[in-house]
Write a structure and sequence with these properties.
alpha+beta; Ribosomal Protein S5, domain 2; four-stranded antiparallel sheet; 35% helix; globular
Length: 240
């Protein structure tokens, strides 16, 4: 089948990372997956959550916040503050981002501090959560380097890198890195978060009024692994 943007089934969209876009954050990038664009900014605070103090938990913590700016979609998306309640989808995504980043970092080595990661979607065209995770991993590594430069830690607490990508089945064909047009028509939708050793951090997949076979699952995982490898190479080009 011909994809809307002319890609092959195994192709990522054009992925770029622009560091230093938020000068007051300790680490930041603007990540683009095609027309999906997300600012990921990491900020350090020399405190830990109260529950860690009360429970005597050593080390630090990483927490994420995710939001889609009102003008990121074709029709204006109201801010959560105007609705008086948090968006359920946004809450689920920021928890996913936080879990993914905590898998990448030795929290004890981070020290008694919190690393806040804000992911703000400037433009949404599918795959905002996978772009946020991939960009946030770079942002936190840049932020941790500022701790080393300041003499607060001797080595980076980042023990592995993580990246994320979407895969899905559209018109019976497995595809990598779905854009919005593909995502809304997908019979199966899946998000993979993996480490630089190609270990799984999280796997989210479901049929949309459909089912999928072992063979289709294997094809999606193989597509995803290929995409993750390329995303890790792009991260590495920024961080080395």
């Amino acid at each position: 089948m011909a994809r809307p943007d002319g890609r092959e089934a195994t192709d990522l969209r054009n992925v770029t990372l622009e560091p230093g876009v938020a000068p007051h954050a300790q680490g930041s990038v603007l990540i683009s997956f095609g027309n999906t664009k997300v600012i990921c900014a990491a900020t350090l605070e020399e405190v830990v959550p109260r529950w860690m103090k009360e429970q005597g938990v050593p080390g630090g913590w990483i927490t994420a916040e995710y939001s889609m700016l009102p003008y990121s979609t074709l029709t204006r998306k109201p801010r959560d503050s105007s609705k008086g309640r948090p968006d359920g989808r946004g809450t689920e995504i920021q928890r996913l981002i936080g879990r993914s980043l905590r898998a990448a970092v030795d929290l004890t080595a981070l020290g008694s501090r919190t690393l806040w990661v804000d992911c703000d979607v400037l433009q949404a065209d599918g795959g905002t959560r996978t772009a946020a995770i991939t960009g946030a991993c770079v942002a936190i590594e840049l932020a941790c380097r500022t701790l080393i430069d300041a003499g607060k830690i001797s080595k980076s607490p980042v023990k592995r890198r993580v990246a994320a990508v979407s895969v899905g089945i559209v018109d019976d064909q497995p595809l990598l890195d779905l854009n919005y047009l593909e995502d809304k028509d997908a019979s199966v939708d899946m998000n993979l978060v993996m480490t630089d050793r190609l270990e799984f951090v999280e796997l989210q997949g479901s049929g949309e009024e459909a089912v999928f076979s072992d063979a289709q699952l294997a094809a999606l995982l193989e597509l995803g692994r290929g995409g993750i490898r390329r995303l890790l190479e792009i991260q590495n080009s920024i961080l080395t």
